[in-house]
Specification:
By secondary structure, the protein is α/β, with parallel strands linked by helices. A three-stranded parallel beta sheet has the order 1-2-3, covered by helices on one side. The chain contains five helices and three strands; from the N terminus they run H-E-H-E-H-E-H-H. It has a single domain, classed as Rossmann fold (3-Layer(aba) Sandwich), CATH 3.40.50.
Length: about 100
């Protein structure tokens, strides 16, 4: 919240949420709510896509959030190898298809 106070004082009107993986933050939704309360626009959410579920998209819809969700993707046939997680490519592709822009 200290950072948001500073953003507000400096006139920052938009932010992107990134990490690591921002969706694993236990305070993700309270943080989003505080950002919106201050009139700051969320331009992009950067995610590996694994936590972009119907429930996540419903929460965005409830808040009227219309933003870009940028998935980390290392390429067809390469993603599992790059991430070291068998099945990661298939999982990200599934989440991508869930997203409103797909």
């Amino acid at each position: 919240m200290t950072m948001l106070d500073a953003f507000e004082r400096c006139g920052i009107r938009s932010v992107g949420l990134t990490g690591g993986e921002p969706l694993i933050c236990k305070d993700f939704w309270p943080l989003v709510d505080e950002i919106l309360k201050r009139g700051i626009f969320i331009t992009t959410i950067f995610s590996n896509g694994l936590l972009v579920t119907d429930a996540f998209l419903d929460e965005m819809e409830k808040r009227g959030i219309r933003t870009t969700i940028q998935f980390s993707f290392d390429g067809v046939g390469r993603h599992d190898w790059m991430r070291g997680v068998p099945g990661a490519e298939k999982a990200v592709m599934k989440r991508w298809r869930l997203s409103p822009a797909a």
